[in-house]
Structures are given as C-alpha cells and as structure tokens.
Amino acid sequence: MTAKITYAVAAAALVVYFGLVGTRGVMLIQHGTLLTVTFGVAVLILPLIGIWFLWKNTQFVQRANRLAAELDAEGGLPVDELKRTPAGRIDRDSADEVFARRKAETEDAPGDWRSWFRLAIAYHDARDTARARRAMQHAIALHDGKPVRA
C-alpha cells in the first residue's frame, strides 16, 4: 500500500510540475520573438514527453497488478522464501538460487505468462530491474494474447 501511495504522490507532483513547465512554455511563445518561440516550443515538448512516460508507466503498473491479482486468485503467487540480512536486505545467494529455479521453470514453459511473471519477480529480487521489467512486459503480452518478440 505504501508503494501505491508513493506512486500516486509522485505522479501528482509530476503533473503539477508539467503544468508549471507548460505555462512557462506558453509564456515564452506569447513573447513573440524567434528565440522565445523556439524555446517555448522546446519547453512544451518536455511535459508532453513526461506525460507520455507517466501514462505508459501507469498502464504497466496497472497491468502488472492485474496479473498479480489473477495469479493470487489462482494461488500461484511465489512464496517469499528468500533469506535476508540482519538489515532486511535480500541475500544475494538466496536470490540467485530462487532465480535459477524460476528461469528453469520459464524455459520449460516459455508460453506461460505465469512463469514469466514469477521470473520477473525473481529478476527484481536479484536487483536486475531492467530484465524484471522486460520479463513482466513479456508476461503481460502473453496474458493479453499479443505477439511476443523472442
């Protein structure tokens, strides 16, 4: 729940920031010189890119949460079996061990979105965020019946 609240607050702050930047871009364009119009247009492009990025990330999170809820209803969410340090961080060897099992599971059933979902969690636990995101995107595509790149 804390992650959802943090995400909502950060998204709201970004929207306010995009609004402020957008008004500055409009003010520059209204000034009317070639230089200020050029800068104004450039300044307006940045919030558009930011809004697109925020929208795509929000869609990703919603889809991943939908898959998590479905997997939870099936009783297929992975159990947290990771060892932790006294500070609460995940033990690297433990994460690697679980990752090896999840990878083998995914190699045995490459068309199953459930195994890709669990692999994404294992990647995340192993602190490989980029691969975790790609594995989750793969799981979402498989679940939705969309074409999947190899």
UniProtKB/TrEMBL annotation:
Spans through the membrane: 7-27, 33-55
Keywords: Membrane, Transmembrane, Transmembrane helix
Protein origin, superkingdom: Bacteria
Protein name in UniProt: Tetratricopeptide repeat protein
Organism: Streptomyces aurantiacus
